[in-house]
Specification:
Layout (H helix, E strand, L loop, with lengths): L1 H29 L11 E5 L4 E7 L7 E12 L6 E7 L9 E3 L5 E6 L5 H9 L1
Antiparallel strand pairs: 1-2, 1-6, 2-3, 3-4, 3-5
Amino acid sequence: MKNQRGSGAVQIMWVGVVMVAAFTLAGCTRHHEPVAFTTPYQAVLLTNGSAYYGKLEGYGTPRPVLTEVYYIVTQNNPETKQTSNVLVKRGKELHEPDRMYLNPNQILFVEPVGEKSKVAQLIAQAH
């Protein structure tokens, strides 16, 4: 009898632990707080390998948005056979986008763009 009562108490305890964990996780997924960045621009790498640079808002929430979006294009000079990387601002495409609404599940990582970095210098020149 004692073994049956003891195992019942253990089962009830485990059910309680599971319920507390479930409520805790549910609370964590409902209250998303955006990450605050200390640099004006961020580098965002997506799971498809695309990298974008811009001002990221709402990272850590279900609806992150990237504004002032730039990306790098590699160009080949057919005469010299040299390649160069050029920073391009989004918005000149046919649909003239002014922002990107990102799927948070597709963001692989986010890094700050250093204020003295080459990317930050090129963005400053583009303004």
